[in-house]
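Q: My labmate handed me this sequence with no annotations at all. I'd like to see what the chain might look like in three dimensions before we decide whether it's worth expressing. Could you predict it?
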Amino acid sequence: MNQVNRRNFLRLAGAGAAAAAAAPVAQAMGAATTTAANVMNPETADRQTQQGKPDTNIADAAKIARGPNSMPGLYPGRVALVKNTRSVRDNLIVEQEVYDMIARSMLELTGEKKLKKAWRKFVKPGERIGLKVNPVAGRSLSTSHEVVRAVIAQLEESGIKRSQLTIWDRREFELTDVGFTQENYPGIRITGTEQMDKEGLYYGKDGKLYGEHMIDRDWYYWADVEGEYDEYTMPYMVNGGKYSYFTKIVTQELDKI
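A: Here is what I predict for the chain of 257 residues:
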C-alpha cells in the first residue's frame, strides 16, 4: 500500500498541477502549428473558417435596395466634434449649453448656415420620426434628458410637430423607470417593444407576452443556431430560437430614426 505523507502529497499535487498547466500549452502549440500550416495554405484556412460559420440570411438582406438615407447616411465618415467646458456645472448638465453644442454640430456637419436647413437635410414635416434612447443603465447613465429635449426643441423649430415624434427603445418599462414618460414629454409618443402591465406582469391572460404584438414576423435576422432565453433572468424576451424579429416600431411605425 502506498504511503502518502504531506511531502509526497504536495509533490504529487505539484506534478498534477504541472501536467494540467502543460495540457493547454500543448493544445496551444498544436493550434499554433495548425494556424501556421493554414497560413501556408490559405485555401485550407478559408475552408475551415467557412465551416465554423452558421448559415444566416445576411446575403438576402444585402440584396435589398438602399436609399439615399440608408446607413451610413448622407455624410459617411464625417464627424463634427464640439467641445464646451460650460456644458456641465456642479455635476449637472446645462441644457442651454447642450442645445448650442448640438446646433453647432449640425451646422458643421451639413455646412449649412441656418439650423432649420441643417435639420431639413434629414427630416421633414409629415414624417414619423423616432428618437432612439437608451434607458438600460438607469437614471445616472441613460440617454440625457437635456440632450433629448434639445433635439426635440430644434426639430420643432425646424417645422416638425411633436405628434410626429416617438421616443422608443426595446423595453417600455425601462423608459418609464428613467423618466421618459408622457408627463415629461407631452404630445410625444413613448413606446417600447417589450412591455408589462400595471401589475408588473409580462404575459396577458392569453398566456402570450405583451411584446408579441410588437414584433414583425415578416422582418427578421435568422441564423442556424438554436438558443432560448432564460425565463427567470429575461422573462420579457420575445425573440428566441433561430429567429430575431424586428420591432414594428421600425418596420411599420416610423419613417426616420
